[in-house]
Amino acid sequence: MVANLGYGSLIIAFLVSIYGAGAAFYGARKNLPSLVDSARNAMLLTFPLLTVTALSIVYLLVNAHYEFPFVDEVISNSMPFYLRITALWGGQAGSLIFWSWLMSAFAAAVTLRKWNRDREFLPWVILVSLVTLAFFLILSIFVENPFVRLWQSPIGNITTSVLQPSGTTLYIPSNGNGMNPLLRHLGMIIHPPMLYLGFVSFVIPYAFAMAALITGRTDDRWIRLTRRWTLVAWLFLSLGLILGARWAYDVLGWGGFWNWDPVETASLMPWLTGTAFLHSVMIQEKRGMLKQWNMVLIILTYDLVIFGTFLTRSGVLSSVHAFAQSAIGPLFFAFIGLTFVASLSLLSRRWNDLRSDAEMTSIYSREGLFLGNNLLFIAVFIFCFWGVIFPVLTEALGIIGQKIPALAGIFNGQKITVGPNFYNSTTVYGFAGLALLMGITPVSAWRNSTAKTVGKSLIIPFALSLLIIPVLLLGGMRSIPAMIGFWICTFTIIVTVNEFWRAARARHRAQKENLLLAFWHLASKNRRRYGGYIIHLGAILMGLGIIGYYFFQTETQGTIPQGGQISLGQYTVTFDSLSVFNTSDNRNVARAVISAYKNGQFVGELYPRRDYYNESQQTVTIPGVRSTLEDDLYIILADWQPLSTTGATFKVYHNPLINWLWIGGFVFIIGMLWAAWPVKELEMVALQNSVPIQKQAG
Amino acid sequence: MNETSAKPNEKISKPALPRWGRIVAWVGLFALLVVVAMVLLRKQQGPVAIGQVPPAFTLTTFDGQQIGAANMAGKVVLVNFWASWCKPCEQEAADLEAAWRYYQPRGDVLFLGIAWTDTETASLAYIDKFNITYPNGPDLGTTISQAYRTTGVPETYIIDKNGRLAALKLSPYTSLSEIQSAIDPLLTP
Amino acid sequence: MLKKNLLAVFLALFFGLLFTGVVIAQQPTPSDDEVNAIAKQLYCPVCENIPLDVCPTTACAQWRELIRQKLADGWSEQTIKDYFVQQYGARVLGSPPAKGLNWLIYLVPPIAILAGVYVLYHAYRSWKRPSRAEESAPSNSLSDRDANQDEYIKRLENEVRKR
Predict the structure, then answer these.
(1) Which CATH architecture best describes the domain C2-96?
(2) For position C153, what pLDDT does the model report?
(3) CB atoms closer than 10 angstroms to residue B74
């Protein structure tokens, strides 16, 4: 039946990927193009095979085949159809298959491109991709196999295995646990796939980088080939992070969107190095510099992707994200060890081949400022990495302390928590610096810019941006850090918008197009630059939301009787009523009706509620939120007295400017799509009137 | 055709990152892998295993008594981790107390209850509710549970007269006889 | 008669003072916000990485009540935090206590970043002074040939880079 088909397909895919990796390696070493082509076909084949597996898993989920334990964990009778499909990534076993399927999709897509000019890369790209895929398939087949079934022995013991043990019968529970209710939100339906797409797609640029190192083709070629891949990978990763933040805000019920939870931070780290990489490759393309550094960055980004995945799934870090501990840890560790060591060895071997000849003439040149950008991203990354790894380090030192009593005093292995304070107070400088750089770099030129030329172009934007300060002061703001933040945002917006304006106006004058059309053509002709500017604008808008939230959020909590009210700043909320009822999909819901008033004026009704899911015995708190451009009024029903409605406890948050975070996120996404949109690659045009041929001497 | 000469601008100056760079990179990588491996191994270990000697600890009871290795030597010791907010703990509370009353007259069995991440008032209320008479105390700083590598409550560890772990139960006991069948084999008649 | 009145007055005064005294000794119950201000800085000892003010479990609710009680008893914020550390271990604090090894968490990143800046500076210096001076001068004809080749290669590269 379907499960057997899916399992068979999984095993065949595994064998095919092992074959492909081996054929690619052997074909490259022995210079046998036909073998390499065979490996290429193998890589292509993994995609349909794993599609069959993935579809069979979805089939089992949708039809609630509870004899499979992985179905029990994430499906229950009351779950609707669309949620059953998303249950594919709701548990460990399913999400590993999902990951492998995505991996094979990307591998197949890479296979289908034209390889004529880069045949030397092909075997190594195949090798790296298929080895990675094979690893994840090993996890699926040998550790977290979704195709194990429940079997019941005659005396009532229940075991799990793929094949039927003798004397047992199939055991089919009547209902499952159902998916963790926190995952049943729209954001959660998109966030894991986006994040997985981001993670998995970074394998391709990494594979090309490894191919470049192995073959010695250490010039630009590997970067040009993977330019769009990297942008797309970065796009998905950014999207995954933004959506994760939105989901946390909507459903986790603590009035915020980012907690510096170790697993969250672990997914931010590849984004930091990936963004640094996106910028510094431009230096390599334009000036031929920083080849070594770009290699370091792509290796670091990919290694952080799998390191972060390892930390999440192995149980080394415990957090709200951690899946249940399993035997995955040691296998994953072996894979990480292999990848890190291989990457560092190859890099070390080719280090001197990556030397570049160019020189940097000025730190105010665009390449100089991009280096500054890289430095800031890496600085933020160092804080994040250290914060995540430090508790692991102290625990390891504690183990040593246990073995060596002399050191037990200082290596006491006391578990510690590195909380948001550490990250917020350290990374803020990096992010502020980056925001400022976003405003300075557009006016710098490649190669030759001095402090004078850059300064001259910035005088007017700088002066204009200072106008925001008196505006804020008049508005009553007194926080200096916040004002500096808002000033930086204003400055960068002015500079970026001016870039569009200047160029569009020049085009309008030269070609007599109307301004709007000029703007459109301009942005289409140079998608990367203007897409980048749109992304920067999006980031600044997000920055506005972040400043408002971190500096000006207020909260209060109170227990009030029906009819009572709580005040927070300009807002007053009254508790109108509370109803408790059961829903058809087996939830018990407590829903409060709150009337919100701003400065005495009624502004709306809000419905914070608490859903208790009977099947999984878990609670989800859904806030009642009133959103405007200016702020969010965010109310949580924290507690209530069940029988006598003597009172309920509400937590009220006021989040100024928070919606600019989501608006900015939207602009960010538009910018990414713009920059990444496929454009017909220009063929290189032969030079006319080229260099005169020198007669041979003698 | 012209011969291709050596790379025109070949750098003869020393490389920017000499050997120390490589050393730092490899040492750093090695250290990272070792640290992660150590912690991973420990997480894989799970709680104290049967046959091992559990770490020594001193429990300060709610009454102010200090119970340490000296009090536990030569006795069969049952160490039970619980918390007042833990619903499954209540299932076994009555059975544990009954078992204690059964074994106490012998003098060579000791029951210790360890309140894990609990508040004193709530713990005392729990003890009152189930009329628990064996010594109970808070797990100060969660040091005892960390030493035993527990993963939650309720968990029970039974140590034999030689100080080795003889039995462990990572869920509530379902009956008095289950407790007795775990302890009886360890008693010398 | 006078004595009875005096006694009545004395008793009234006595109990009046007693009553007032009791009222003064009673402090107002700390509000939720005061409790949360401290709970925000603490983490749930059971469920990792969830701040104490938002954790919905029974245990966390008990701990918030504990904070409320200690506040009512007049304990300061630091004393309460120290109490929690003593009871539940250092991981209940949002920021690691700055003693023993924990200094490293604040020290290492700045040192690493400074090291990075130094490497960058060093690299920048080496870029600013390329090895022109160190190249040996090749023979004339060879150099002419090379120069033309360089020209051609440069123009090719420029063309490619324009894309």
Answers:
(1) Orthogonal Bundle (1.10)
(2) 63
(3) 12
| Residues near A429 by beta carbon (within 8 Å), at least 6 away in sequence | none
**pLDDT for residue A652:** 94
The residue of chain B nearest to residue C89, with distances taken between CA atoms, is B141
Interchain pair A687, C144: CB under 8 A = no
A393 inside 8 A of chain B by CB = yes
How high is the pLDDT of residue A632?
93
Q: Does A561 touch chain B (CB under 8 A)?
A: no
Domain B59-187 is found in CATH 3.40.30.10 = yes
Instruction: Give CA separation, A355 vs A323, A447, B10, B14, B29, in Å.
Output: 43, 18, 9, 11, 23
Q: What digits encode the pLDDT tens for the residues A200-230? A: 989 999 999 999 999 988 788 888 888 888 8
- CA A200/CA A88 separation, integer angstroms: 17
Residue-range domain boundaries for chain B:
2-44, 59-187
- Burial of A544-569, coded b for 16+ CB within 10 Å and e otherwise, reads bbbbbbebbbebbbbbbeeeeebebe
Pair of tokens at residue C123: 């690299």
Euclidean distance between CA atoms A391 and A383, whole angstroms: 13
Average pLDDT, chain B: 85
B101 has a chain A CB within 8 A of its CB: no
Q: Each residue of A487-515: pLDDT tens digit?
A: 999 999 999 999 988 888 888 888 777 77
Option in C101, C117, C141 nearest A697 (CB): C141
Chain C stretch 5-24, residues whose beta carbon is closer than 8 A to a beta carbon of chain A: none
Q: Hey, is A29 helix, strand or coil?
A: helix
Q: Which of A368, A206, A202 is nearest to A295 (CA)?
A: A206
CB contact under 8 A, C146 and B8: yes
Q: Where are the domains of chain C?
A: 2-96, 101-162
Q: How far apart are CA B144 and CA B150, in angstroms?
A: 9
List, in sequence order, every residue forming a beta bridge with B109; answer none if it has no partner: B76
- Please tell me the pTM assigned to this model: 0.87
CA distance A291 to A283: 9
Q: Please, which residues have CB within 8 angstroms of residue A175's CB and are 6 or more apart in sequence? A: A66, A76, A77, A615
Q: Does C50 touch chain A (CB under 8 A)?
A: yes
Best of C54, C139, C153 to disrupt the A interface (most A CBs within 10 Å) is C54
Tokens of A82: 């669309």
**A neighbour chains, 3+ CB pairs within 8 Å:** B, C
pLDDT lower than 50: segments of chain A? 324, 683-689, 696-698
Spans of chain C below 70 pLDDT: 1-27, 127-163
Which residues partner with B169 through β-bridges?
Answer: B156
